[in-house]
Amino acid sequence: MGAAADKLMSKVADDDRFAYQAAELRPLQVQALNERFQENKDRIKLLRHRADEAGVDEITALEDMVPLLFPHTAYKSYPESFLMQQKWDRLTKWLGTVSPYVIEGVDLDGIADIDEWIARLAAKGYFISCSSGTTGKSAMLIASQKDMDWSKLDTVGVFSWGSGVKPEANRYMVGCAPVATVPKNQTIGEAQTAAFANPAWGRWNYPVPPITVGSLTKMVVMRKKMADGTATPQEIADFEATSAERQKVLDDAIVLTAENIIENRDKLLMVSGLWSGLYAVAKAVRDRGYSAKDFNPDNCIYVGGGLKRAQLPADYKQFVHETFNINPTRDFQNYSMQELNSGMPKCREGNRYHVPPWIVPLILNKEGDALVPHDPAGGEIEGRAAFFDLSLDGRWGGVISGDRISLDYSPCACGNAGPSVRDNIARYADLEGDDKIGCAGTIDAYVRGVA
Known about the structure:
Blueprint: H1 3-9, H2 22-40, H3 45-54, H4 62-65, E1 70-71, H5 80-84, H6 88-95, H7 114-123, E2 127-132, E3 138-143, H8 145-163, E4 172-175, H9 183-196, E5 203-204, H10 213-228, H11 233-263, E6 269-273, H12 275-287, E7 299-303, H13 316-324, E8 326-335, E9 344-345, E10 353-354, E11 359-364, E12 380-389, E13 398-408, E14 420-421, E15 426-427, H14 428-432, H15 440-450
Parallel strand pairs: 1-13, 4-5, 4-6, 6-7, 7-8
Antiparallel strand pairs: 2-3, 8-9, 10-14, 11-12, 12-13, 13-14, 13-15
Helix pairs in contact: 1-2, 8-9, 11-12, 12-13
């Protein structure tokens, strides 16, 4: 990795890593972007294609990076038949278009499903994190061992900074939501447990069967077949029975988790989950007659993601806080996305997500093909969020997201002068019912041609 990128990443443990002004860092960031481009332009096939198409051979300004960013849909650009027909050799070849490493030495014989494919890749040092979307196609994000090691370092750092909780291994950790079983989630969980959990107490994992990529994919594909009328009566009956069983498991998990929290209410707690799960468990605790007065005032909370379209009362945050005795300064929230390897923690004073020096934010127009004019010395701009995460090793660090954000280059109320994101993040798909990124079609066409 290049000297400029290494210098920016070396700030990961610095207390003042969010204090640097964007204008101060810009020359070093541009140099680091060029380092990453020169390192990977002949290693990542899709990047080489984009660079040739745009006529870019060097990064001298942020504008040069725009045509080289991958839309988030690029990681779903493989033909759906590869997954549905279990063409693991073709799917592996597709991974080679988005990875700088030659994927070799993986035994592809006799693979039963996508979960086994992911496990065999991981055994050879290729870590795939996926999430199944509404179409049934998973975004497949390849990562290296260096990326896994960075995730461990970053997740502890962002939580400690955003919550004020020091990694002193003195808490009882309670998960209030199911977690997808993918390498990155497992790595992050291990790092947080090692840093914050009292080893004598362990941690409470939400009592549901492991949620694998294979199980999610099967569910979404079945829903798709039911919607288009191709599902057989027996398939529908089996699906409905399985859904009913899963719902009972989820309902029981809420009760069991609430009872476990009540039993351990004397301990210093770190509760985590999505707001929907946290609210459900909090309500179950309240229904049994317990509330803030019964819990430690230094408890903390780790919230992953937003509402995810869950319908909750207007006071859901206050309700959860008052149930577990969470001081607002101990409420950790983080802005990131699967395509990145680093987080942007929310500060406690300004209620804004802070961008670290090794993540370069690029605010684009809605179409995603041009930078929105801005002054890195100050002021706020709004547009489509794009980022380059310089910490990424196993895939290209530049991504165009589906988010509309407001990025401020002026100092935050917390005292940090670095760029920060306002807490008004929205999805273009939710705002307009659809989301079109200008370069997505050409990337999809290229990948299908290669595959």
